[in-house]
Each structure stands twice: as C-alpha cells, then as structure tokens.
Amino acid sequence: MKEQNVRPVEIHYVKSGDYYLPDLELPKVDKPIGRYGRMWEKYLREHDTVTYNVMLLNGELFTHLADMDEQAHERMEQLIRQMKEAEGVTEEMKVRDQLAWVGAMNNIRARAEEVVLQELVYAQ
Fold first, then answer.
1. Chain mean position to CA 120
2. Average pLDDT of each block of 10 consecutive residues along the chain (124 residues)?
3. Nearest Cα residue to 49 out of 4, 90, 94
C-alpha cells in the first residue's frame, strides 16, 4: 500500500437550525478536464481509491486531472508529429492522394492514442 502525504485540514462549521454543517468549498479550476482527465479519474476511482479520496478531500483532484489531460494532449501531438515524419505523411501527400493521407493519419492517431493511454492513463 502506498504511503500518502496527508496534511491536516482545518474545517469550519456553519450552524443550520440545530445542526452544525461543515463549510466545505471545492477550489476553482480554470483549466478544463478533458477526455484523458476523465479517463484518469475513472481509473483512480476504480483502481486506486485511497489516492482518489485523499486528493478529492484535499482539493487537489481537479487540478491534477486537468494537468493529466494537458500532458496527454501534449504527448499525443508529439507522437503524431514524430510518426508523420517517420512514415513520410506530408502535406504534399494530402494534396496528391487525399484518401491515402486520411487513412494514414487515422492510423497514426489511433496508434498515438494507444501509446498515450498505456503510458499515462493506465500505467501509473
């Protein structure tokens, strides 16, 4: 089992009728959580519930998911660029034989996405 870096959180309470309720607020996240961030969240929720719950309770989960999504998109762009160069898929090919270019790009995108999923989403 992983050791978690847990820091104490000071909780304030608000009286509502006869009860005291915790005054909790999630931090604002400016970056969107895209497809890969949601996939990572599902993976954490199903396979590493301790980390998921600790990050959720500390208010770090949504920022982490947005960062993960951004990393995945950057890695996808890098892999696609490298695969296009290695396989000779160019703009000239796009003009000359559009159907072959679309097929090659779809193939490259699918392989790049598989690598990203294995490296970032499901491997941690």
1. 8
2. 62 87 74 90 93 89 92 96 95 95 96 94 76
3. 4
3-state secondary structure the chain: CCCCCCCCCCCCEEEECCEEEECCCCCCCCCCCCHHHHHHHHHHHHHCHHHHHHHHHHCCHHHHHHHHHHHHHHHHHHHHHHHHHHHCCCHHHHHHCHHHHHHHHHHHHHHHHHHHHHHHHCCC
Residue keyed to tokens 């995945």: 72
The residue type of 59 is G
What count of residues does the chain have? 124
